[in-house]
Amino acid sequence: DAKRSGGRQVVLSHPDQLQAAVDRSAMDRRVRAAAADDDFELVYQPLVDMRDGRVVSAEALLRWPGSGVTPTDFVPRLEESGLIIGVGSQVLVRAVEQAARWWAEGRSTGISVNLSSIQLGDAELVERVRTVLADTGLPPERLTLEVTEGLLLRDLDAAVDLLAQLRRTGVHVALDDFGTGYSSLAYLHRLPIDVLKVDQTFVRAAVTSERDQVVLRAIVALGRDLGLTVVAEGVQETSQVELLLSLGCTVAQGFLLASPTRPEDVPVSVELPRLLDLTGSDVAELAG
Ligand code: C2E
Ligand code: MG
Ligand code: MG
Ligand code: MG
Questions:
Q1: Strands, DSSP E only, in 20-68?
Q2: Are strands 55-63 and 41-49 parallel, antiparallel or unpaired?
Q3: Best probe residue, ligand 1, of 114, 119, 177, 235 (max atoms within 8 Å of C-beta)
Q4: Could you give the CA distance from residue 54 to residue 106 in angstroms, rounded to a whole number?
């Protein structure tokens, strides 16, 4: 019995816990092998200006083809093992190379790259960013680095310093999944960021409930008043597009507008859904 064996052994008394631990280490082995074999791929999801359909940027998103495992499951494994440093560096390089190709083609599409909190602790991070920009010649402002609130709050001064260093390379910084983490209005204004990505839960809820709409309206106003570009995540319905535009949020991402695709399939602009209540000039006016 594990409990009796003492020492530093992990105590696994319940069969479910044991099974979970076995599954986990099997998954860890698969993830490690996938990282070593470079089995991960990137797809790109457009960020769309809802006033004219222009694709302003594309977010690079990891996929593990043939594995049946989604990023929500394998990214945490990559983080726990530290493998995210290597995989994430590859993501940065490949995504920026893709953006440089678009740039060379005369397109205006920028690139958004997710950074794990673990990568923020990588002493080489700023240098990696500088290097890939120098190697590809991509204008820095075409790259947006997406960070989540997670670890930022643990050491706010260090986070502010790092984000400021990143921004000094000329890239933009986005706060991802805003509202789901330890969102504190007390620190938001201190973070040197350019973009606020409002989590899909707020976008979703706002079209069904007046009270939730009040919350979304406040978040959009807060972001705009702080001088940030506000991006809505997870737009799946036309009513959400209408609401967001009426609140002054002009950029969004979501399956209604465009799904993640291979880089060669990322369009320059997308066809917008027919808006039910608004005319073109209304849109221009409302979104100001
Ligand atoms: P995220 O950065 O918030 O990325 C947006 C996620 O929302 C993506 O999920 C995207 O496919 C999904 N999404 C987009 N539009 C819609 C919609 O209309 N409805 C719904 N339900 N979902 C939508 P995905 O690709 O599964 O990635 C999940 C998370 O995994 C990402 O969330 C990010 O936190 C992480 N991730 C993905 N790729 C990377 C990466 O290269 N590096 C790091 N560190 N994390 C990554
Ligand atoms: Mg993201
Ligand atoms: Mg997000
Ligand atoms: Mg999200």
A1: 41-49, 55-63
A2: antiparallel
A3: 114
A4: 14
Strand, helix or coil for residue 42: strand
Q: From the CB of residue 183, how many other CB atoms can be counted at a distance below 10 Å?
A: 16
Does the interface ipTM go beyond 0.95? yes
70 CB within 6 A, ligand 1: yes
Tell how strand 41-49 and strand 251-252 pair up. antiparallel
Q: Which of 23, 111, 37, 119 is nearest to 75 (CA)?
A: 119
Q: Please, which residues bridge with residue 178 across strands?
A: 198
239-264: per-residue pLDDT in tens? 999 999 999 999 999 999 999 999 99
Q: Write out the DSSP string of 160-201.
A: HHHHHHHHHTT-EEEEEEETSSS--HHHHTTS--SEEEE-HH
Express each pLDDT in 134-190 by its tens digit.
Answer: 999 999 999 999 999 877 777 889 999 999 999 999 999 999 999 887 777 888 999
pTM over 0.80: yes
Residue 122 Cβ < 6 Å to ligand 1: no
44 close to 263: Cβ distance less than 8 angstroms: yes
What is residue 100's three-state secondary structure?
helix
Task: Supply the pLDDT for residue 153.
Answer: 75
Residue indicated by tokens 């938001």: 188
